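Contributing new records

If you add data, match the layout below exactly. Sequence lines come first and carry their own label; structure lines follow with theirs. Keep one chain per record. Anything else will be rejected by the validation script.
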Amino acid sequence: MSGFLKRLFCMHRGGVAFVRNIYGDEINRSGGKRSIWVCKRCGGFIFEPYLNEPPATPAPLEQSS
């Protein structure tokens, strides 16, 4: 259950690792995405439209004091 919650709330700030590029007809099936990345924190897959460019990580949340 905790793995599910981790994936549900992960914003992929833990870093990503390159898996592989997508070529040919597989691009059409993936909605135009051209590379696959995996989140090191939650294990979720991220599909990106560019070759070998890591996904943009969101800026850290600012906490007001």
